[in-house]
User: Fold Aspartyl-tRNA(Asn)/glutamyl-tRNA(Gln) amidotransferase subunit A from Pseudonocardia ammonioxydans.
Amino acid sequence: MSAVRPTPTHECDALQLQELYRRGDLSPRDVIEDCISRIERINPEINSVLVVLVERARAAAAESERRWREGAPRPLEGVPIGVKDVADIAGVPTTGGSALYLDHIADRDAEVIRRTENAGGVVIAKDATTEFAIGGPHNPTFGAVRNPWDLTRWSGGSSTGAAASVAARMYPLAIGSDAAGSIRMPASWCGLTGLKPTTGAVPRTGVLPLSWTTETVGPIGRSATDVARFFAVLRGLDTADPRSVPTPADGLDSLASGHVPSDLEGVRIGIARDYFLEDCDGDVRQNFESAVNALRSAGAVISDVMLPLAPDAMQIGYLLLFTEAAAVHRVNADRLDQCDPVMVRRLSEGFLTSATDYIRALQYRVQLQQNFAEAFTKVDLIAVPTTPGTAPNLDDLTIQIDGVPKPMHDVQSRAGMVCNLAGVPAVAFPSGVDHAGCPTSIQLIARPHKEQEALTAAGVYQSRTGHHLQVPDIAA
Assistant:
């Protein structure tokens, strides 16, 4: 009888790595060395990592090895983690993907970094982002990040490097940020699971600001259980962040420990068909319907639900985002000639927003929240395709919708911004691949502070399917 081939380290998710640590079959120090080697080999092809924190990671791995040996592991003990380059790490530049901040050395860790490392996570790399998380794919300072599934395509933004690195199996988890879908879009296009938490659930202390109204920080990983474990560490009140709020007890710890329910019996899932399924690629739509059927087979009660104000969310949300970003970056106004033209154009729109239009947009936000509140009297979760098409081409920045190229910026945030404006949590996870072999994705939206419900449904789905286990060739 032939021996069972062990799973390569890079194919293990966070929970699998920790089980191997627990059994003594794997060493955190060996895993970190493997991660460093993979970054050296793969990063030149996809350009997702800006800085490898070699000494910091090796020291943390040694501490994790000691803790496992002594039987005192923490929740993320020994798990390698990347960080979008908007979060401060003491002694390391926080560039925000911009030439303006190349010498912007952080003097302390962001709160999410502190929580990650206090939980045993091994922070190993700073990941690429679009300029100040608002620029275009072709970053003039660091270049574009290529999608591991197809190097002619973009990995998505603005958490572009975080998603590409996790998809390429450089490490199993990463910290991203999301102001209009910037965790969920790259998760969608890279075949990953990404969570945009409830507004205020994860503190932003020490994270470069972009938008007070729409921005959140959250995890990107390969599975709902991994993401749940990371979110359980990141969330919670931070009095240094005025927008941080307490998070209620919700049973997340069970899912974070890898305990996935066997079914979704009685869970009510609403399908928002109007608008979200319009102008949507046929392969994305077909895989979405298959995912809905799988949720139904797991016991979920499926019905249609309406979000009447959703069609205006992308336009109004970007008005808010660009205006708030312009307020943040007014200090850089005399240096914008050194920046990404896409970012400059967006900030310029923000500088021109009238107070009347901004206030009207804030009022729309309240009305949109009322839309969601009404929908959630009838359902527990709302399902939509995460993005209307698969990853955009880097040469012309278009997304193919049934063979017709659409400008990426016109369609990419159709299902993203609506959640940021309403402040509700949403998880994106793989639903299959299209005819070209690129990932498609489904998004589950939950009530505020009900991340556990969306993540549990995603976990049950992933326990019954294998889409989240597919690996791009470059990562093999």
